[in-house]
Automatic annotation (TrEMBL):
InterPro entries: AB_hydrolase_fold, DUF829_TMEM53
Gene3D superfamilies noted in UniProt: alpha/beta hydrolase
Name under which the protein is recorded: DUF829 domain-containing protein
Length: 410
């Protein structure tokens, strides 16, 4: 497993298989290690999803620049996979993960950070975001948040933190309050607004919480879920009775897995529908520019193998034909509906071929069939008789076609 270090933390692929349903981006809680998130990575892997795991540093919560740098690295790592083939993406923040990295990921995608991605890359990631799972999250951002996390038993994985660690945490918290007191409230408002704005990216929400969680209070989680619903989000709130902070899966593995499975399946379905819609819009736009090139391409295929019928091509009874864009090549589409949708895209064929009396072919046939010396003959077409009468001096005997045939055989 290759770990990649950034200015604000480290990240690695917990599972990276070629055959996968999608990608889960795990924003682990502060001070967590690989062994702490392994059970979650295994859970997503059992459902066919790869995992990109991010471990943020403590100071990311107080220095947004550090969180922004780490978020930029995470997005670039994702883009390497998505440019090969798009997959549904589900963000899974734990505990303080939204503040330490996730909200900066969302801001970069929305173009609200100093660090900028290519607009096409931002749109690619945005189109792939298909769901969100909040586990013991989000937590409210206050000035003593770092201190409470450092000394919390569920974070340290011990019943009582060492006394010296508590002293250090209190000292750091007091120093940060003195330095950044005026910035905390503005950062807090920006933090919550960014999380709410993720509704515009689409995808369902699964929020797992507990009434016994003092780091992520139940009322804060409920208010967050209610606000997402008011903004139009598809939200499912699951309350685990008696489970500690980031301990829901350990106490309720069956219920936890069932909830996660349901959301990942829904995310995959939403991504599939979204890709079909985007391809339809793209093909429809390209069809306005390629009405000629696409029919020529299919006509060439039919010329190579004329026994096969055109797939997705509808011939109208009149002297024109209709060629839909490639998105309509899927089987099962109603042919009549295709005609109704694209009547303006009809490409008219010419009428049955005729010979131009003044063309090259006419001149060749005339030279072959008619002798050079036509003196004494009356050569007039019906059209020319109606329009321009010939010189009377050249009107002699009527035209005899047998003479033309005999003379041409010479």
């Amino acid at each position: 497993m290759k770990e990649m270090w950034g200015f604000g933390g480290r990240y690695y692929w917990g599972r990276r298989e070629m055959e996968r349903e999608g990608i889960v981006v795990v924003f682990a809680w502060m001070s967590s290690q690989e062994r702490h998130v392994k059970s979650y990575v295994d859970l997503y892997g059992s459902l066919g999803w790869n995992s990109l795991v991010c471990h943020s540093q403590f100071l990311n919560m107080f220095f947004p620049e550090k969180a922004e740098t780490l978020a930029f690295d995470i997005l670039n790592e994702l883009l390497e996979e998505l440019k090969i083939r798009p997959y549904p993406i589900v963000f899974v923040p734990f505990s303080d993960g939204p503040k330490a990295c996730l909200y900066k990921v969302l801001q970069i995608i929305e173009g609200k950070c100093e660090v900028q991605l290519n607009p096409d890359d931002c749109q690619l990631v945005r189109d792939c975001i298909s769901g969100h799972i909040y586990d013991s999250s989000p937590v409210d951002f206050t000035s003593d948040l770092g201190r409470r996390f450092v000394v919390h038993p569920s974070v340290l994985k011990m019943s009582r933190p060492p006394r010296i660690l508590s002293w250090m945490a209190n000292g750091i918290s007091s120093s940060l309050d003195a330095l950044f007191l005026n910035r905390f409230e503005s950062q807090r408002a920006e933090y919550w607004q960014t999380l709410y704005s993720s509704v515009s990216m689409g995808g369902p929400y699964l929020i797992l919480c507990s009434e016994n969680d003092d780091l992520a209070p139940y009322q804060v989680i409920c208010n967050f879920a209610q606000r997402l619903k008011e903004l139009g989000g598809d939200v499912k709130l699951v309350k685990m009775n008696g489970s500690p902070h980031v301990g829901h899966y350990r106490l309720y593995p069956v219920d936890y897995k069932a909830s996660v499975t349901e959301l990942l399946c829904k995310a995959a379905a939403i991504f599939s529908q979204r890709i079909q819609r985007l391809e339809g819009e793209k093909m429809g736009f390209e069809g306005t520019h390629d009405q000629i090139s696409e029919p020529i391409s299919d006509l060439r295929k039919a010329t190579v193998n004329p026994q096969h019928s055109f797939r997705g091509v509808t011939f109208a009874p009149s002297d024109h034909f209709f060629m839909p864009s490639s998105v309509e090549y899927y089987e099962g589409r109603d042919v009549e509906s295709l005609q109704d949708e694209h009547k303006e895209s009809l490409v008219r064929l010419r009428s049955p071929p005729t010979i131009n009396p003044h063309g090259v072919l006419s001149q060749i046939l005339f030279d072959v069939c008619v002798p050079k010396n036509v003196e004494g003959w009356d050569l007039r077409s019906s059209a020319s008789l109606n329009r321009h009468p010939l010189n009377p001096s050249r009107r002699h005997a009527p035209f005899n076609p047998m003479k033309c045939i005999r003379r041409s055989r010479l």
